[in-house]
Each structure stands twice: as C-alpha cells, then as structure tokens.
Design brief:
The complex is a heterotrimer of chains A (72), B (183) and C (510). In chain A, 35% of the residues are buried. With 72 residues, chain A is of the alpha+beta class. Chain A has three helices and four strands, in the order αβαβββα. Chain B has one domain (2-182). Chain B contains three helices and no strands. Chain B has 183 residues and is mostly helical. The mean pLDDT of chain B is 86. Classes of the chains: A alpha+beta (72), B mainly alpha (183), C alpha/beta (510).
C-alpha cells in the first residue's frame, strides 16, 4: 500500500514527448510521488489517466465519450 | 091461497116437532145460558194459556230471527275485514317488493358502474401500454443512434488526433486538476 | 408517429449539456466478492452509506468502513463482478425517485418501474435515509384515519401520523387489514404507499390486482422488493418507500404507508450483516436491529401547521411464530410503535374475521383523533366484550344460568357477530354509528343468534334505500343525540319486523 502510494501510474495513448513528461513529473511531485510508471494503451484514444494511490485522475477521451454515452 | 096454506102447514109442523121433542123456549134459553158459561169458562181455562204459549213461541222465533240477522251481519263484517286484510297484505307485499326492487336496483347500479369503471380502466391501461410501447421504441432508437454516432466519433478521433492535440489535451487536464485541488 | 427530427434534436441538446471535464475520483479495487458482498481495498475517502460505481455499470452500497478496506453490498451483478475490478466513489447517497408520477405505479426501491408502464418522469429524487422530523416540527395527532373496519375504528382508532403495528401469525389476515385500509382511503385525500419486503411475487400480484380493481391504484404507489430480489434491495425498500412518503408529507399531504413486513426486513438485514461479518446478537440479529426499525418508524409523523400539517401514518406488519409476541423483532417493534393490532389464528379459525384480539390490541394516541359520535357509542364496547368473554368461559362449565346472565351472553355473542366483517366490505363512519347503536340496544335481542351478520348487512341496505335521511342527518363530529338514536332504533325495529314477516311467510310457503 505504502509503496503503491509512492508510484504514480500513468496511462497515455502514445509515446509522450518531453514536454508532457515534464508536466506530468511536476504534477505528480506535488502529490508526493517521485517515481512514475508509464503504460501506453491506445484504447484510451487520447488524453491521460494518472493513478496515485486511491486517487484516479481520468482525462482520457475514452472516459469522456463514455460519459456522453451514459448521459444519453 | 095455496101458497098460504103450505106456509102455515110448515110452521105448524115445526111447532109440532118442537112439542114432540120436548123443546121449549125455556129449554133453549137455558141451553144458551149454558153455552155462554161454558164458553167463558173455557176461554179462561184454555184459550189464555194457549195464546200465551203462542206468544212465547212467536217471541222465540223473533229472537232466532234476530240472531240470524246478527250472525249475518257478523259474517258480512268478517267478510269485509278479510277483504281489508287481503288488501293490506297485498299492499304490504307491494311495499316489500318495491323495497326489494329498490335494493336490487341500487345493487345493479353499483354493479353496472363498477363494470363501467373497469372497462374505462382497461381502456386507459391499454392506452398507457401503447404509449409505453411507443416510448420504448423511441428510447431504443435513441440508444442505437447514440451508440452508432459514438462509435463513429471514436474511430474518427482515434485516427485524426495529432500529437499536438494530445499534448494540449493532457496539458489542459493537468491544469484543471491542479486548479481544482488548489482552489 | 415517431418524429426522427425531434429525436435528433433532443440528442444534440443532451450532448451539449454533458460537462466535458476530466474526472478525478477516488477508486478502490475489489479484493473479495461473494454472496453479493464485496470488500474493496482503497476508496480512502468514501463515506458511510455512499453509493459506489462498480466497473461494468453496477452499483454497491458502502456499509462497513474499516481500517484498510470497505465492505459494500451489491445491488446487481453479483455474478459479474470479479476480483480486481475497480470501484469508484460517487459522493452521493442512495436516492429514490419521488413525485406524483409514481402514483399508480409499481416500482423497485430505486424508483425504477416494474409494471411495464413506461419510464417514470419523476419530478425529483430524495435520499432514502433522512432524519426524522424534529420535536418542534411535530403536531398533535388529531385527525382520524378510517380503516373502514368496525372493530378497529371503534376500539383501536388510528390517527393520521400514528404508527400502528399489525402483528399476528401467518394467515391471520394482517395484509388484508392493510389492503382494506388502503381501499378505504378512496376519496379521503390520502396518498397510500404499499411497501412489499420479501413477499412472494404471486401474493404481491394478487394484492396489486385487488387494489387496481378497487380503484385504489390512482392514489397508491407500490414499492416492491420481492423474495427473489437482492437482499440489499429488500433492506432499502422501506426507507425508499418512506422517502417517497416524506416527499408528500412535506408538501402538506396525508400519507399512509404500509410496511409488509418488517420481520422479513429484519431477516434481510440479518443476512447482510452476517455476510459482512458483523457480530451477531440475540437470534443472530446484529446489534443495531432496533435502530434499523426505530429510525424508519420515527420518520412517520404528523407535522405542525407551520410545517404544512402533512402526516405519515405507518402500518408496519410483523409476523409472529406461534403467537409469540415476546420474540426479538415483535417486542422491538411493539415498543417503537404507538400501539398494535394483535391478530390471533384461533380467532381467525373460529370465524371471527378480522381476527382482532381486542384485549391485547391498543392504540395509544388514536383515541383523541376518533370521531366524536363513534367515541360516544363505543365507550362501553370494550368493557362489554370483556365481560362477555369472561362469562363465555364460565358458561363452558354448563351451569344453569339466570335470565340476566343469559341476556348478557346473547348480547355479547351478537356484539361479536356485529364486529365480524367480510373482506373488502368497508363501512363508512355513519354506517358504523348505526351498527354500533343497534348492536347495543334492545332491538338486537329480537334478531336470531345466527342471523346477526345477515341482519346487519340487510339493515344497512334498507336504511340506505328507505331511510336515507337518517344517514344524511348523522354528524359524526357531534355527539349522537337521543332523538337521532330513537330514529335509528325505529328504523332497525322496522326492518326487523319486515324481515321476520318475510321469514314467517317464507316458512308458510314451504
């Protein structure tokens, strides 16, 4: 649990460039994480999903489309 | 002349006969007297009781007659009263009947209105069911449309998204979350 | 028939309304799933009774918050949820759809329709758990709720805002009393809610049919969690029903809610609690089973005039086993409610229906809400009946009885007969006044012992048709005048003569 909290799991749709990596690192550092694990999953279409401990930041296009689908 | 003679002869014959029978005027008178006494005596001894008896008899008959009349009257009255009772009974029966009819009518009205209400309800229910069917059809259609358009959107977005778009998207998201948590 | 353009337009509008922002939510992972219970690791900021989203579109209710995990019950999909699935918090508690659109409908405890009559366009929703009205918000119970059942309205009167328990063994007519009461609210401006908890679907269907035929569905909503629904649904059903009732109460309306029945509700809660590994107490019920029912029944109330004067009258039903009212759940609920109607199977089997045991049934607050005329003539009723029962037991020894005792006995028997009532045959208040007046007068002595029921029914028909002015002239809210009493008795005597004449004639014809 404690170890999990220190690692931020980031999912993106394609290989991130430097500017993205920098932004994410900064965002994650503010929340007490110093290690970041990247996963590339084209299924999220676009955007980013960051998971730090219990908290999920879901900014993927997939989830946005899903929200629209549910509200219809 | 001759006629006179024969008359004379009859008279003298009667007188002669009387004489021979020893009937005298005195005797006749005595007899008459006797008769009178007998008659009077008999009148008192026999006629009165008989008369009384007859009178009694008559009274009895009268009484019986009167009784008969009374009886007749009574019978008549009885007849009348029975007729009245009959009429009353008929009236009562009619009232009873009327009451029964009233109650029955009321019940019948109730049943009819009940049936009417039920029929109305069935119609209403069918109508709502039809509406429901329509609404279901519509929502199904909506869902299909939404599904198809979202699938299309996914494909298009997935193919057309550029690296720059993605970067901007990520940047926006991160900024939004930071803002939300700070403020 | 179907306007495609309109559908398109509506869809566009809906899409425009969707908030397009990245979500940040608390999540957890399922580490145990079984029997409809899930254990979730994570979810650190979840609250008690919060609604959880399980991946795949299922919902769960967080009930146990522990040091490093959360215990929750699933409302659906217990066979689809797998180990490792993500669970998201929603920040909402469970809500029930409320509003007049639900009247005439049969819904599940979440407000979704079960009757195939289409979507419910509810005007609002309301949390199913809600604090009971505060003391200062409450008013005095002063309006009667007529059940239409003579034995109850005369001796165990129920007021609007009261909680009256209906308790008895199975097959003693508990539900029948509740259904009769709902049927009797026609035209009384009372909204009825029938909550079915753990009942057989077939018996519920029968009840709904009865309500529909009686025209009662117009003002009734049925909240149903039958025996085959998930246990959590059965658990929340009464609270959902109560939320719906509260919605109407705070609008100033009078509501009648029937919980059928709370013993099954307690059993459902026990199953859930045991699966959640909560410690078991008496009869294996968890420690908070009293609170389970008290917090539900406390929400029934009569609001003060300043708050709109609405009310919720609750008729909870509890089933006993072999007449044992000292079991755990019955004693709990008896102590929470404002009185109980105790039904006995012995009475039921001997033909006294409704099988109300008058000695053990009480109403603690309804008396002040009773109509004045009824109160006046039913004052002696309880005592008379008690006297009769005492004597009836004595009579079984077969001793010779003096005429006075015999009279008391026959009067008592006839009074008991008068209190018998066919199901679905409700009396109005005026009819009750007539029946009670006649049953306690000399007129009833002329009625043959076995014909009291027949006589009473006929008498009401007779008066309704031929002596309408008596019924019209009665004022239930004023005392019954001697003159009126004379009139009623005269009519009763008239009908009695009428009937015995008819009978004599009938015999002659035979």
């Amino acid at each position: 649990m404690a170890e999990e909290k220190l690692v931020a799991k980031v999912v993106v749709s394609e290989k991130p460039d430097d500017s993205v990596l920098r932004m994410v690192a900064e965002f994650v550092k503010k929340r007490g994480c110093y290690k970041t694990e990247y996963t590339i999953d084209p299924d999220i279409i676009g955007g980013i999903v960051i998971r730090i401990g219990d908290k999920v930041y879901d900014g993927s296009l997939r989830s946005r489309l899903e929200t629209i689908r549910q509200s219809l | 002349m001759f006629e006179f003679d024969s008359g004379m002869m009859i008279l003298s014959g009667i007188a002669d006969m009387f004489e021979r029978l020893n009937i005298t005027w005195q005797g006749i008178l005595l007899h008459l007297f006797n008769l009178v006494i007998l008659t009077v005596g008999l009148y008192f001894l026999l006629f009165k009781p008989v008369k009384k008896m007859i009178r009694e008899r008559q009274e009895k008959v009268k009484k019986i007659e009167k009784e008969n009349a009374d009886l007749n009257e009574e019978v008549k009255a009885l007849k009348n009263s029975s007729r009245e009772a009959l009429a009353e009974a008929k009236k009562e029966a009619a009232a009873m009947h009327e009451n029964a009819v009233k109650v029955a009518n009321r019940k019948a009205d109730e049943i009819v209105s009940d049936a009417k209400a039920r029929a109305k309800e069935i119609v209403a229910r069918t109508e709502t069911e039809m509406d429901e069917e329509r609404a279901k059809l519509r929502s199904d259609l909506e869902k299909q449309i939404a599904d198809v358009s979202l699938a299309v959107a996914e494909k298009v977005v997935g193919r057309d998204i550029t690296k720059e778009d993605n970067r901007r998207l990520i940047e926006e998201s991160l900024k939004e979350w930071s803002e939300k948590e700070n403020g | 028939m179907l306007d495609l353009n309109e559908i398109g337009k509506e869809l566009k509008e809906k899409i425009a309304k969707v908030k397009d922002d990245g979500k940040s939510r608390s999540t957890g992972k399922i580490v145990y799933s079984g029997d409809g219970i899930v254990k979730i690791a994570g979810l650190s900021d979840v609250k008690y009774n919060e609604l959880l989203d399980v991946r795949g579109g299922y919902h769960a209710l967080a009930l146990n918050l522990e040091h490093d995990s959360v215990g929750a019950v699933l409302f659906s999909g217990e066979d689809r949820v797998r180990f490792g699935d993500y669970v998201y918090s929603t920040g909402k508690t469970l809500e029930m759809k409320v509003g007049s659109a639900l009247l005439g409908r049969i819904v599940n405890p979440l407000g979704e329709p079960l009757d195939g009559l289409g979507e419910i366009a509810a005007e609002a929703s309301r949390p199913i758990e809600y604090p009971a009205p505060a003391i200062m918000d409450r008013g005095k119970v002063n309006k009667p709720l007529q059940t239409g059942i003579l034995a109850i309205d005369s001796m165990i009167p129920i007021g609007r805002g009261q909680r009256e328990l209906i308790i008895g063994d199975r097959q003693t007519g508990k539900t029948a009393i509740a259904v009769d009461t709902i049927l009797n609210q026609k035209g009384e401006n009372v909204i009825c809610i029938y909550v079915s908890i753990g009942q057989k679907a077939s018996s519920l269907a029968k009840i709904i049919n009865t309500l529909r035929q009686g025209g009662a569905m117009e003002y009734t909503c049925v909240v149903s969690a039958t025996a085959d629904d998930a246990v959590p649904l059965q658990y929340i059903a009464p609270y959902s029903g109560c939320a719906l009732a509260e919605h109407f109460m705070y609008q100033g309306k009078d509501v009648l809610i029937v919980y059928d029945d709370l013993s099954k509700h307690a059993v459902a809660y026990r199953a859930m609690s045991l699966l959640l590994k909560r410690p078991a107490g008496r009869e294996a019920y968890p420690g908070d089973v009293f609170y389970l029912h008290s917090r539900l029944l406390e929400r029934s109330a009569k609001l003060s005039e300043e708050k709109g004067g609405g009310s919720i009258t609750a008729l909870p039903i509890v089933e006993t086993l072999a007449g044992d009212i000292s079991a755990y759940i019955p004693t709990n609920v008896i102590s929470i409610t404002d009185g109980q109607i105790y039904l006995e199977s012995e009475l039921f089997n001997s033909g006294v229906r409704p099988a109300v045991n008058v000695g053990l049934s009480v109403s603690r607050v309804g008396g002040s809400a009773q109509r004045k005329a009824i109160r006046q003539i039913s004052g002696q009723l309880r005592i008379n009946l008690a006297q009769y029962r005492e004597l009836a037991i004595f009579m079984q020894f077969g001793s010779d009885l003096d005429s006075e005792t015999q009279k008391t006995l026959s009067r008592g028997a006839k009074l008991t007969d008068t209190l018998k009532q066919r199901q679905y045959l409700n009396y109005t208040v005026r009819e009750m006044i007539v029946l009670l007046t006649v049953a306690q007068s000399n007129v009833i002595d002329g009625v043959p012992a076995k014909k009291v029921g027949e006589y009473n029914e006929g008498l009401l028909d007779y008066i309704r048709v031929n002596r309408k002015e008596i019924l019209d002239g009665l004022d239930p809210d004023a005392g019954l005048s001697e003159e009126m009493k004379e009139k009623i008795l005269a009519a009763a005597q008239e009908y009695l003569n009428f009937v015995s004449d008819e009978e004599a004639e009938g015999e002659k014809n035979v």
